Amino acid sequence: MKQLYTPWGQELDKTNVLSEYPRPQMKRDSYLNLNGYWDYAIYKNEITSNFDGKILVPFSPESVLSGVSQFVTPDDYLHYHRTVVLPNDFLKERIILHFGAIDQEAKIYINNQFVIHHLGGFISFQIDITDYIKGNEFDIYIIVRDITDTSYRQTGKQRIKRGGIFYTPQSGIWQTVWLESVLKEYIKDYTITIDYDTSKVFFKLVTNHEIKDLIKIKIFFKDKLILEQEFNDFSFSIYLEDKKSWTPDNPNLYDFEIIYKQDIVKGYFGMRKFERVLDEFNKMRFYLNNEPYFLSGVLDQGYYPDGLLTPPSDMAMIYDIQTMKDLGFNLLRKHIKIEPLRWYYHCDRIGMIVWQDMINGSARKDMIFHGGLALANIHLSDKNYCLFGRKSIEGRKQYQIELDEMLNHLKNVTSIATWVPFNEAWGQFDSLSIAKHVLKTDSTRLIDHASGWSDQKGGDYYSRHIYFKKIKFSQKNAKKRILALTEFGGYSLMLQEHSYHPEKVFGYKKFDTIQSLEDAVCHLYETEVLPEIDKGLSVLIYTQLSDVEDEVNGLLTYDRKILKIDADKLIDINKKLNQRFNNLYIKKLE
After folding, report:
1. What local confidence, expressed as pLDDT, does residue 373 receive?
2. pLDDT of 589
3. 3-state secondary structure (DSSP) of residue 357
C-alpha cells in the first residue's frame, strides 16, 4: 500500500488541529479545544502505568496523521491520557466535556474517578465533570476497546480484513474533544421544527432544571435583527414575515440567539420543506418547498488517506462539498458514516442536500447472496434475522439505540432531506417498523427504508442500486414511491501516482484512460439515465465522490488532487438532467 496525503494533511499545523467551533448550531462563548498531543498506549490489558508515546488527537492510531500508524486489534486496549489546565477566566459554574466520537467502546475517568462507560463509535456525547475536579487542573484518562467487525456492533465500512469495498478500520478518538463552561442553570438541548407553509418555526428547549423562566429569542437575517420576542415556556413558536426559503441555489439561513437566565446560545435554521408528492402525471416526485425538484448527487464516504474517517481540516470538508456543488450536483449521500457537525453546517451554508445513512452493523460479512437476489429483483423478508446477520437480540437493540442517537444528534440540520436506515441488506431487519419509528420521530424528512436491495415496499422511495445491467425503471413503481437510482456508475480508473493500492484495483467497470472513462460516464448519463426521467426517475446518486483505498471509482482521486472527468462535461450533464426534468412541467403548463 502507498501512503497518500491530501493537500490539507501535507500542510497540517500540529499545534492547531481542527480548532473551529465543533457545534455550529449551538454555540456559546465558552470553548476550549482539547485536540493536540495526548499520551497513548496500546496494550493487551486494561491496566497500565506506562505510555508508548504521543498521539495527535483527534486522529486515530491507525492513521498516519496521528503519528502512530498502528493497528488496534480486538484484543487490545487503547489508553489515552491528558492533563488539562483551564484558563483563569474559563471556569464558570459547570464544566462539560465533549467527545465528537470515540470508536467503539470507551471508559472515561476524571482524576482517576470513573465517570462513564460509552458504547457506540459514531455519535458525540458529553459529560458534566464538575463534581470530579477541583481547581483549574485535572486529568482525563480513557480506555478504549474496538472489536470492529468481529461482532454485531455498528462498524460502517471498516473491516479488519480490508479490501474491495471495505476499508482500513480505525479506533479510539476520531472527532474533536472540547470543553465548555456553563452557568448553574443552562440550556442542554433544543429541537427546531420548521412549518414551511405557515412560516412558523417551533422551538422546544431542554434545560438542566425543571423550573421555567423567561426565554428571550432574537432572530437575524444576514446580520440584521428582524425579530425579538419573549416567552414563559420552553416550547414556543415564532412567525417569520416574508420568509426567505432555503434551497441549494439560495441557501438562506436565519441566525438566532436564545437567552435563558444568564445562559446565551447561538444557532441557525433554514426555512425548507421536503416531501413526496403525486404530481399531475400520476408520478411520485421529490418536492422541495412545494415544487418538484430533481436530485442529482454522488455517494460520499468521507474517507481520507491520511486521516481515515477524520477530515484533516475544516477546509478538506469544504473542498469536497464545494467541488461537487461547482460541478452541478445538489445532493450528497453520506454513506454509512456520521460526519463532524461542521460538515453538515457547511452543507447548510453552501447549499447541498444530504441523504444520511445510518451506520450498519451485523454478524454477516458475505453479501454476495443478497446481491445476486437483488440483480434478479428478488427481495427476501428482513424478518428472517439469520439471513441478514441479525440473530442477536442485543445487536438489534443496540442498533435502535444508536439510530435514535443519530436522529437526535442531527435533528436540526437544515440540509438533511432523507434518512437511510439500511443499505444493501447489511444488517437489515424489521425495516418497515424501523421506518415507522423514524417517521414518528421525525415527520419532516423522507425515508429510504432499504437502499438498493431487499426492498420491503416501504418508505418514500423505490430505491435501486444498478451496476451490472442496463438502467431501467417501470412507470408503475412511480405511482406509490419516488423512483430513485440510489447507487450507479462506479466506473473505475486507477491513476498510479494517486492510488493507495495500485496492485489491487476494485471497480464495477474499469477503464485505462481519462478519455475512455469520460466518454463512458457521459454515455451512461445521456443514453440510460436521461430517458428514465420521463418515467418518473427523480433521484440520482453516482458512485462516487472520491476513490477510497482499493476502490478507484471516484470522480476525485483518494488524495483529492485530481478530478478524473472534465469539469465542464459534468456541469453539462447536470444541466441536461435538470432541463429534461423541468421540461416535463414546462410542457404541462403550455
Report:
1. 87
2. 53
3. strand
pLDDT tens digits, 269-312 = 999 999 999 999 999 999 999 999 999 999 999 999 999 999 99
Per-residue pLDDT of 150-205, as tens digits, reads: 888 899 999 999 988 889 999 999 999 999 999 999 999 999 999 999 999 999 99
CA geometry: angle at 448 spanning 447 and 454, to 5°?
Answer: 140
Rounded Cα–Cα distance for residues 551 and 254 (Å): 40
Domains of the chain: 7-182 (2.60.120.260), 187-269 (2.60.40.10), 278-589 (3.20.20.80)
Cβ atoms within 10 Å of 514's Cβ, excluding its own: 15
Chain CA centroid to CA 374, Å: 26
DSSP 8-state assignment for residue 71: P
- Which are the contacts of 69, defined by CB distance < 8 A and separation ≥ 6? 61, 62, 63
In whole angstroms, how far apart are CA 223 and each of 218, 254, 255, 448?
11, 9, 8, 37
E-assigned strands of 438-536? 446-447, 461-466, 482-489, 491-493, 509-511
Q: Are 115 and 109 in contact (CB under 8 A)?
A: yes
pLDDT in tens, 321-346: 999 999 999 999 999 999 999 999 99
What is the SS3 string spanning 1-50? Answer: CCCCCCHHHHCCCCCCCCCCCCCCCCECCCCEECCEEEEEEEECCCCCCC
- The overall average pLDDT reported for the chain is 95
Contacts of residue 397, defined as CB under 8 A and 6 or more positions apart, other chains included, come to none
SS3 state of residue 418: strand
394, containing H or E segment: helix 393-409
375 backbone dihedrals φ, ψ, rounded to 5°: -60, -35
Residue-wise pLDDT tens digits, 507-564: 889 999 999 999 999 999 999 999 999 999 999 999 999 999 999 999 999 999 999 9
Give, for 396, the enclosing helix (H) or strand (E).
helix 393-409
CA 70 to chain CA centroid, Å, is 26
Burial profile 53-86: b = 16 or more Cβ within 10 angstroms, e = fewer: eebbbbbbbbbbbbebebebeeebbbbbebebeb
Phi and psi angles of residue 108, each rounded to the nearest 5 degrees, phi first: -110, 130
Span 66-89, average pLDDT: 96
SS3 345: helix
> β-strands 53-57, 187-195: how paired?
unpaired
Global pTM value: 0.97
Which is it for strands 105-110 and 113-119: parallel, antiparallel or unpaired? antiparallel
The confidence score (pLDDT) of residue 365 equals 60
Burial of 575 (0-12, 13-18, 19+ CB in 10 A): exposed
H helical segments located in 410-452: 431-441
Strand order across the beta sheet in which 187-195 lies: 187-195, 200-207, 235-239
